[in-house]
């Protein structure tokens, strides 16, 4: 019996339009027909995440030069760097909720144009304000507001368009864009910083975001046209060649439309231990990653002042890209071979938070520059495994409201990022040592890992068991 998914009224074309009850969960017809759209969206979302981080990492790269020019202390740097995450907190849930209802691609399109303009305008605010510390804090706050909708929109788009056995690869591929963007701006930005000054890094990052806006606009237009063609073709195919009645699914399908959960359902959702575990683990993962992302350039500048910026701003992220892709392929391969989904998610998170912490602790001791680069590279490479762990687990648990729930997760992660980034600056200034920061990161990682290993699951919790039983009867 075939299952034909309806397109939401305001949603973009599904990457999975037709499904049959087959072992690979993709369907005979649907598995082949969805590939054109899937490839287009994967490339565009990868580009979007890449440029998002080009703009986001511009400030950490330029922070040392700006601190020298404007006479900032480490606490001042921490306040400017941490203000991004204050803004990042406020639009997570809203971005996910709106994406679940109107389509994640529309939210991504509008936000890209806004944060691109904000990035290019940042040097103007710095030079034409009598107190640059306040203007830069405000600029980073606004940048956080505008970029806060990206990942919830991405989670919403993925949960509605991609089947379970392929989410790991898609999310890890798109997630690798964050490391690609950091690599690009780390290499090119370091050179521009030396040759043309810190202002050029912001100007170029803002200009690159215009390409994202154009790419998303073209992709949305192409997808709408291709969706109509695919929908008509698949409908004709089902009517002519597939015997038996067609069941149209709304919220019960694995790629169902927008969330319409009531307050009572949300309260029931947050009472689930697996949901709480995902939120806590993501909080720990995000806060440690944000801390490393914000402070690593300053760490290398302070510890190895003669080192070339393009080396430590490029190599760790160059390692992270293939690592992210590998983790996605590995997780999807294990699930397709019949391994328990929850066990695979936990394995990925063990590498991300457990094994990486070993190399983070090694940075606490006395190291040479090559050793420090190697330890940081392995740490960042292993951290990418979370894209196939906790980041995908939210789609396993609640695909009908993954965007909004991911927004809650990212809000918690951003808030903890504010505290950890600022507190790290305080620790560095108070102790005069970076070992305290790396020890703090390790402790937070272990807390998140233990929580995830103890309580994480992969079964759906966003629907009543009675509805699930009814769905299985029709299948």
Automatic annotation (TrEMBL):
Keywords: Cytoplasmic vesicle, Lysosome, Membrane, Transmembrane, Transmembrane helix, Transport. Its main location: membrane. It is found in: Cytoplasmic vesicle, Secretory vesicle, Chromaffin granule membrane; Lysosome membrane. PROSITE patterns: MFS, SUGAR_TRANSPORT_2. One of its GO terms (molecular function) is purine nucleotide uniporter activity. It holds the Pfam family MFS_1. This is Voltage-gated purine nucleotide uniporter SLC17A9. The lineage of its organism: Eukaryota, Metazoa, Chordata, Craniata, Vertebrata.
């Amino acid at each position: 019996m075939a299952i034909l998914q309806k397109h939401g009224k305001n949603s973009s074309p599904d990457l999975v339009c037709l499904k049959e009850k087959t072992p690979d969960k993709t369907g005979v017809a649907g598995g082949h027909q969805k590939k054109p759209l899937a490839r287009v969206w994967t490339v565009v979302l990868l580009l979007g995440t890449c440029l998002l981080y080009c703009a986001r990492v511009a400030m950490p790269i330029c922070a040392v030069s700006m601190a020298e020019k404007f006479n900032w202390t480490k606490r001042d740097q921490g306040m400017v760097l941490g203000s991004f995450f204050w803004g990042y907190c406020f639009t997570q849930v809203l971005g996910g909720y709106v994406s679940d209802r109107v389509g994640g691609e529309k939210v991504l399109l509008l936000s890209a144009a806004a944060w691109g303009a904000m990035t290019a305008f940042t040097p103007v605010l710095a030079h034409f304000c009598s107190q640059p510390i306040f203007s830069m804090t405000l600029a980073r706050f606004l940048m956080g507001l505008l970029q806060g909708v990206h990942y919830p929109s991405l989670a919403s788009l993925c949960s509605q368009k991609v089947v379970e056995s392929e989410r790991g690869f898609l999310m890890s591929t798109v997630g690798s864009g964050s490391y690609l963007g950091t690599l690009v701006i780390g290499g090119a930005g370091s050179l521009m910083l030396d040759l043309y000054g810190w202002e050029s890094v912001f100007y170029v990052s803002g200009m690159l975001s215009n390409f994202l806006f154009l790419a998303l606009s073209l992709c949305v237009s192409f997808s709408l046209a291709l969706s109509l063609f695919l929908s008509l073709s698949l409908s004709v195919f089902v009517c002519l060649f597939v015997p038996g009645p067609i069941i149209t699914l709304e919220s019960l399908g694995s790629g169902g439309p927008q969330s319409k959960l009531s307050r009572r359902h949300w309260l029931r959702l947050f009472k689930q231990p697996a949901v709480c575990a995902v939120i806590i683990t993501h909080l720990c993962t995000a806060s440690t990653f944000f801390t490393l992302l914000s402070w690593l350039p300053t760490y290398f500048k302070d510890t190895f002042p003669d080192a070339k910026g393009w080396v430590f701003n490029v190599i760790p992220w160059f390692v992270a890209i293939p690592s992210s892709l590998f983790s996605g392929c590995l997780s999807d391969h294990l699930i397709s071979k019949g391994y328990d989904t929850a066990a695979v998610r936990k394995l990925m998170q063990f590498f991300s938070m457990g094994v990486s912490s070993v190399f983070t602790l090694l940075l606490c001791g006395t190291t040479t520059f090559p050793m420090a680069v190697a330890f940081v590279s392995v740490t960042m490479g292993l951290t990418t495994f979370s894209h196939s762990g906790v980041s995908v687990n939210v789609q396993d648990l609640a695909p009908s409201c993954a965007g909004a729930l991911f927004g809650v997760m990212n809000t918690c992660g951003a808030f903890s990022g504010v505290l950890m980034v600022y507190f790290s600056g305080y620790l560095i200034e108070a102790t005069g040592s970076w070992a305290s920061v790396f020890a703090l990161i390790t402790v937070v990682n272990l807390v998140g890992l233990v929580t995830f290993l103890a309580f994480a699951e992969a079964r759906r919790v966003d629907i009543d068991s009675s509805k699930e039983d009814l769905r299985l009867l029709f299948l």
